Every structure is written in C-alpha cells, then in structure tokens.
Fold this sequence. Notes:
Strand content: 25-35%
Number of helices: 3
Strand order of the largest sheet: 1-2-3
Oligomer: single chain
Distance between the termini: 58 Å
Structural class: alpha+beta
Amino acid sequence: MTKTHHFNLDLSFETVDLKVQTEITPTGKIPPHRNQRYGVAMKASAHTTFDDLPDVALIQIRPLVNYKVVPYSATTIWRLCRSGKFPRPIKVTPGITAWKVGDIRAYLDDVAKVSEGGAA
C-alpha cells in the first residue's frame, strides 16, 4: 500500500510542488529502506531530465556522474572543487553534500563559452 502526500513549498522566489510517497506494508509497518534514517521511507517524484529541475534544486555527486551531467568522474569533480574551478557544494547534513542545479548550469555555460571562444 502506498500513501501519497502533496506539499507545496513557497520559497518566496519560487514555488516548488513536491509529491512524496510513503510505502506501508499490509501489517501497517513501514518497510526498511536503504536511505532510511527516521522511520519513514519516502521518494520524491522524479524529474525526467536535468533540464526539468529548478535552479534552486540540489543534486548530489552520484547523479552528476552517473547521468553524465558533467563529463567528469567523482574524483575529478572533488579535485576541481578544491582548486576553485568547479562550484562549491553545500553540506546539507553531515552525510549529504550537494550542489545547486543553478550553479552547475552556470558552470556548464561558462565552460561552453570558453570552448567556443577557444575553437574560433
């Protein structure tokens, strides 16, 4: 059984609709989930592409690398962050680090402009 909850977050500069599904077993207990910490297994509704995400959204390193948002490995991303050539991540919790989608888009636009200028 799945319960669906709808939230509308008004962030003063953008409104984000969030759909969360909570899975409950027939016994009424919430099943274990590998990312579960506080007793609720929730999944946010997925966007189809990186372009569909709002600029205020946060994205972790795994999707950046696995979905080829940037043409780098995780190691290269961290090296570029340390050298100041890649946007700085945000420490969401002690175990979660993410980047603003808008910062990644701006970085990709800058890289495209430099490569276009260098090729001419």
